[in-house]
């Protein structure tokens, strides 16, 4: 009997509780956005100072932009991690679209799960054969020999044919896929990346309002063995198209001798927020086609990172390239973690500052700061 009374009491309590939560959810009652819940927000320099609202607040608008991912069906589980981190730290408040591109059809499992995780609209595109195969001027035997030789020398991805198609596609084609044509800006996301801090101001809108065309969070030196003739190809392009070279460009970032040789610095292109219209411009297309004719995507192993970076550093003004200090990012094996503690606290960051790659020997970010006369963030020299 006593047992029954006790159970009845719990049952009533549970029912009252459930009813309460039901009513709260029905009436859309939300916890107040009160000062005790809101974390203080710090901005991307001036932009962030007065524009750190989520969209909708104070009439802020979304930009015509999309996330974009090139992936295989087998990348699904690594991609799930990336989407989750991007949504949790940023996109759940913005609901930007996400375009997935693949040289094979995406399977239903891939589409089902990624659509469930992305808060914006998802689109799935098949890459046309012409954009993922050998152009007719390429000697395929010579390309196969080059791969064998690079494999023998144990150059990373040296023996891979698909990696070369991937790099060429990212260099010259993704931005003109039909699914990308309606957008103005893109944010490239690869499988298994991480974002360690909240992103509270819209980087797309920052790019657009400030006439930025390209951005990065990590920069570093490229392996010489993958690009032996890239710079001579670039020089040929610059000679043929002086009209495409920008004044006040960032040549100093990629060359230590006024353009005679390449110092191998590049922005790490697995993270990119950039202007699609710039990539679709005549200057960029002329540049890509000129390089493509020279065959280095196949006879060597030119990466899309140096290809994009050299384009940005020669054909944009240097103030059109943005370093996003407070987008904390990881792609194996490097981390960008904001040095200054206040930023990490304000943005609820979960990265270890000592993992920050920016000021290490192999990074080029130091050079970027010098070229742009920027002062390093507080705490950059802290060792722990
Ligand atoms: P890494 O970052 O240089 O080690 O190269 P990844 O393996 O991450 O490849 C770069 C991007 O291209 C990732 O988004 C991959 O999912 C994608 N990718 C690489 N190879 C292929 C491929 O053969 N087909 C497709 N569809 N995507 C690829
Ligand atoms: Mn990758």
Cofactors and ligands present?
A: guanosine-5'-diphosphate, manganese (II) ion
Give the termini distance in whole angstroms.
63 Å
Overall body shape: globular
Structural class by sheet pairing and helices: alpha/beta
Strand order of the largest sheet: 3-2-1-4-9
The number of strands is 12
Q: What is the helix tally? A: 15
- Our estimate of the beta-strand percent is 5-15%
Q: How would you portray this structure in words?
A:
The protein has 15 helices and 12 strands. The strands form 4 sheets. The protein has a 5-stranded mixed sheet with strand order 3-2-1-4-9. Strand 2, helix 4 and strand 3 form a beta-alpha-beta unit. Helix 6 packs parallel to helix 13. The longest helix has 25 residues. About 5% of the residues have low confidence. The structure holds guanosine-5'-diphosphate and manganese (II) ion.
How would you briefly describe this protein structure?
By secondary structure, this protein is of the alpha/beta class. It has 15 helices and 12 strands.
Please name the defining characteristics of this protein.
alpha/beta; 384 residues; three-stranded antiparallel sheet; single chain; 15 helices; binds manganese (II) ion; binds guanosine-5'-diphosphate
């Amino acid at each position: 009997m006593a047992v029954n009374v006790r159970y009845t009491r719990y049952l009533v309590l549970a029912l009252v509780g459930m009813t309460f939560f039901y009513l709260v959810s029905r009436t859309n009652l939300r916890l107040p956005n009160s000062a005790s819940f809101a974390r203080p927000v710090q901005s991307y320099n001036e932009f962030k100072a007065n524009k750190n609202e989520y969209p909708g607040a104070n009439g802020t608008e979304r930009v015509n932009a999309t996330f974009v991912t090139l992936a295989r069906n087998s990348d699904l589980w690594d991609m799930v991690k990336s989407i989750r981190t991007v949504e949790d730290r940023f996109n759940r408040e913005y609901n930007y679209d996400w375009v997935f591109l693949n040289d094979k059809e995406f399977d239903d499992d891939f589409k089902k799960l990624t659509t469930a995780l992305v808060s914006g609209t998802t689109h799935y595109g098949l890459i046309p054969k012409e954009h993922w195969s050998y152009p007719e001027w390429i000697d395929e035997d010579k390309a196969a020999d080059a791969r064998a030789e690079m494999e023998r020398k144990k150059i990373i991805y040296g023996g891979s044919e698909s990696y070369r198609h991937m790099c060429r596609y990212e260099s010259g084609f993704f931005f003109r896929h039909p699914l990308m044509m309606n957008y103005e800006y893109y944010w490239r996301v690869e499988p298994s990346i991480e974002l360690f801090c909240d992103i509270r101001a819209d980087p797309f809108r920052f790019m657009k309002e400030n006439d930025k065309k390209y951005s990065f969070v990590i920069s570093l030196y490229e392996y010489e063995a993958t690009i032996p003739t890239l710079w001579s190809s670039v020089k040929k392009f610059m000679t043929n198209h002086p009209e495409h070279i920008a004044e006040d460009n960032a040549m100093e970032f990629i060359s230590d001798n006024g353009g005679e040789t390449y110092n191998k610095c590049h922005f790490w292109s697995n993270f990119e927020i950039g202007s699609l219209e710039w990539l679709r411009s005549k200057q960029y297309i002329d540049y890509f086609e000129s390089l493509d004719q020279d065959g280095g995507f196949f006879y060597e192993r030119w990466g899309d990172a140096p290809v994009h970076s050299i384009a940005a550093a020669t054909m944009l003004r240097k103030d059109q390239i943005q370093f996003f200090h407070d987008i904390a990012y990881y792609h194996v094996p490097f981390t960008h973690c904001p040095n200054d503690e206040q930023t990490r606290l304000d943005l609820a960051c979960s990265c270890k500052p000592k993992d920050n790659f920016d000021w290490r020997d192999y990074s080029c970010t130091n050079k970027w700061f010098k070229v742009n006369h920027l002062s390093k963030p507080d705490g950059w020299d802290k060792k722990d």
